[in-house]
Design a protein that fits this description.
One of its GO terms (cellular component) is membrane. By secondary structure, the chain is of the alpha/beta class. It has 15 helices and twelve strands. It folds into two domains: 145 residues, ABC transporter transmembrane region fold, CATH 1.20.1560; 258 residues, Rossmann fold (3-Layer(aba) Sandwich). α1 packs across α6.
Amino acid sequence: MGIVMTTYLFGNALGDGYLRQAQREASLRFGLMRVREAAEEIAFLGGDWREAELIRTLFRQVVDVASRLVLMNGLLEGWQNTFEWTTTVVPYLFLADRYFADGPTGGMEMGVLTQSVTAFRMVQASLAGLMQETSSIAQLSARTKRLHELMDALEQVEGAQETLGQKEGEEDALLGHGTTKPQHNLDRCLKVVSIVQVPVSEGGMGYGEKEAVLELDDLTLQSPSQREHSHVLCSGLSLSLLRSERCLVRGPSGCGKSSLLRAIAGLWRNGSGIITRPSDDRVAFLPQKPYLLPGSLRDQLLYPKKSEGSVQGDQDIVQVLNTVRLGGLFSCGDRLPEGLDTVRSDWIHRLSLGEQQRIGIARLLLRSPPPVLAFLDEATASLDIDTERACYEALVDAGLCIVSVGHRPSLAGFHTHALDCAPADVVKGILEHSSSSSNLNALSAAWTFHPITAQQK
């Protein structure tokens, strides 16, 4: 009876509690991993406060479930102790009448009574072992349910693979070619890196069309690595960009184009010089792969702000989506069954890279307050030429000063200036050919800022 009551009162509740605990902890680990993988995109968008709020919410859920489990285990232990001490008097109650009985045969002898009580306690101890393991059995039940869910998910994947006609063993062959990156000794790097803060001017910044929105004054950037392996990415770079102007940063991969954007964003300050730009709330950074969070489509478009209390109505959002040629999402009912309020946890898999990039551009156009300066790091690389033109025209019509990083020749037509980069090895080769006496090992990439002529467009 005691085992049945324990199972009924605590077993099911503890099993469900441990299952919820495993689910909440898995959600927290996934959230932390997601933030770690997209840390740079989140920093560019200024969404650290939003992610911190989401992580705190997940952590509170874990703590809440853990607190309930602590309470349930405390009640279980109290019940077990109460049951154990209460049942010690049960054999005496049952045998009391026979022990004190009067009659021809007399009462039960003390030795017989002791033997009966001892036998009862041995049976009780054997059965009580199951009660003592109620919590462990509940944990095992929860883990078994989680494994069962995983097995069901794997079976669904295998069924989908068979439906698509995939060959047996194809997945193993693909996984067999995976590689892992070496892990660097971060502590050793941090001890030798010298970080030089780049001052950012906050006053005197005008937003008129003929006033400078971005100024670089004698900017020098170094790679954030060990001092003996650090190299100069740019040296003495100076330029001024008006709000009515747009600059295209060009150069081969690895020459430091994205590093320049990181420095302007304040994420990379290893070097010297002065960067003058508007405050963070008036600057937008758009990476090649926009950050998408679990939530509704509206959440993606208004990130890092929340959709609740937003000043943008549905009509404004749909208009922007049509501008960046994403209106077709609404024509497929299975993709957005609830329109802007359709919630997905895997937008990165639901949308193509081109659609994700247009989500990022739409997010930029919906920013409030509207940005003055926008940086696009190959943000249209996955778009066709016509869609790219439509997106850039929308950004220009919004009155943005744009700094783009890209390789497409078609991008020149959307910009007034170019910042061209010649890698350090190219500069070194030219100087070696000209027998220059410069210190060739200390050379940096050569940057040239110039207007883009009509012929170049």
